[in-house]
Design brief:
By secondary structure, the chain is an alpha+beta fold. The chain has nine helices and 19 strands. The strands form seven sheets. The chain has a five-stranded mixed beta sheet with strand order 6-5-2-1-7, covered by helices on one side. The protein has a four-stranded antiparallel beta sheet with strand order 10-13-14-15.
Length: 424
């Protein structure tokens, strides 16, 4: 969308938006160049996932031919440094006749927890050695933070900072009970409690009408597409290809001037009747389930856990409703970090406490009074529950069947990752 409005578009870092055909990769989805990984995580020095390299330098040559250069030669270099250096270079060597869109998606501080030893000493010598992950975790974040500072300084040196919109956002809360902390909120990554979904963001730009304040309006990451579209002056009706429905809404006035915008966000809707297995070519040929022990041993987290039940979780105004069978997590205590995390209260309800177990039923929380999601008020507000549950059929009508999430062994060739299905 930005490219068709005259922007130079450069992507750096983590893609994780599909790669089973080349048409799903970033340089085929609107980026002039892309430097980073197609998958969701990799070794910070090896640039490998499951023993295969996935660090690519994608671009179009002078004849317009797509080039995918897997950068095996960069093994041993810390990837966060590589991403920062490429971001700085992209700004300095940009086409100055065009506006610039730069997408910089660091993998830090995603697992595996790794950082250069000298930087651990520089950034984290004051941190206790136990829990063992904390020193490297803090260093990962510090190196990323320093990199962002370099990007901002480059924008300033290039004299374009005053006409730039900087959006920093996280994709989820910290991993529950391990390394990071979401205190005082409940749960973390992979749960739909506030500790997992209420991510920190900030926006910086001279274009903002209001600055220096905390915005508590309800926003969703998909809103940025609609917002950038509006700011870029894009007019979908003027293009030959019809625009597909957009999930997000324009939040510029909400961000810039603290105006209200949306009052509802669907957190997740899992309906197994809409998940299909298929051996047809248009899906994933010869799919395989990744070896769980191999993945966890390499990446050190629970990325491949499954949700077995159907569930519906939604935020409507200040209400948050869970119904079905869903992952539940508890509350990490204020000063407890690492794999030996302590929790600041026991569960009074076996279905809504503990770590990663399945809860079931219908629960309602009033986030305005109970942001920690401690007290189920479904019985107290049956009309609210009824109103929210009546939204389910409307969302169901908009659902499209999807294929089960897996990767294929055919994507691993000659020590590298590649798309494994021909373009449809």
């Amino acid at each position: 969308m930005l490219k068709r409005n005259g922007y130079s578009t450069h992507g750096i870092g983590k893609w994780h938006c599909g790669m089973y055909t080349w048409d799903h990769t970033p340089a085929k989805r609107g980026f002039d160049t892309y430097f980073g990984l197609y998958l969701g995580a990799q070794g910070y020095f090896s640039h490998k996932r499951s023993g295969h390299v996935d660090l690519r330098d994608d671009y179009y040559d002078k004849d317009g031919k797509f080039v995918d250069d897997v950068r095996v030669d960069l093994q041993g270099n810390y990837s966060t440094y590589l991403y920062t250096d490429r971001a700085v270079e992209s700004i300095q060597t940009r086409d100055k006749s065009k506006p610039l869109f730069l997408y910089l998606s660091y993998t830090a501080p995603h697992s595996p927890n790794d950082a250069p030893a000298d930087e651990v000493e520089r950034f984290a010598s004051h941190i206790p050695s136990t829990p063992k992950h904390r020193k490297k975790y803090a260093t990962q974040i510090s190196i990323m933070d320093e990199g962002i500072g370099k990007v901002v300084e480059t924008l300033k040196a290039e004299n374009i900072l005053d006409n730039t919109l900087i959006v920093f956002t996280a994709d989820n809360g910290a991993v529950y009970g391990n390394k990071g902390s979401n205190y005082p909120l409940r749960g973390g990554k992979q749960s739909l409690f506030e500790g997992g979904v209420r991510a920190v963001s900030f926006v910086s730009s001279p274009l903002l009408k209001k600055t220096g304040y905390t915005n508590t309006n309800l926003h969703h990451v998909t809103d940025w597409y609609a917002t950038f579209q509006k700011l870029a002056g894009d007019k979908p009706s003027q293009h030959s290809k019809p625009q597909l429905p957009v999930d997000g809404v324009d939040i510029w006035e909400s961000v810039s001037d603290n105006q209200p915008c949306r009052d509802e966000v669907l957190m997740n809707f899992r309906d197994h009747s809409m998940i299909q297995d298929s051996s047809e070519h248009e899906f994933l040929a010869k799919r395989e389930r990744p070896d769980l022990e191999e993945e966890l041993g390499e990446l050190g987290d629970d990325e491949f856990t499954d949700d077995d039940g159907d569930f519906f979780v939604i935020r409507w105004k200040d209400w948050k409703l869970f119904t079905g069978t869903y992952k539940v997590q508890a509350w990490t205590s204020k000063n407890s970090l690492g794999t030996a995390a302590k929790f600041d209260r026991a569960s009074e309800d076996g279905l809504m406490g503990g770590g990663g177990k399945a809860g079931s039923g219908t629960k309602l929380f009033d986030l305005s009074a109970d942001p920690r999601e401690e007290t189920d008020v479904a019985d107290k507000y049956p009309d609210v529950v009824k109103t929210i549950l009546e939204k389910i059929p409307g969302y169901k009508k908009k659902m499209t069947k999807i294929n089960k999430r897996t990767r294929s062994s055919e994507g691993k060739r000659d020590g590298k990752w590649y798309p494994w299905v021909k373009n449809l």
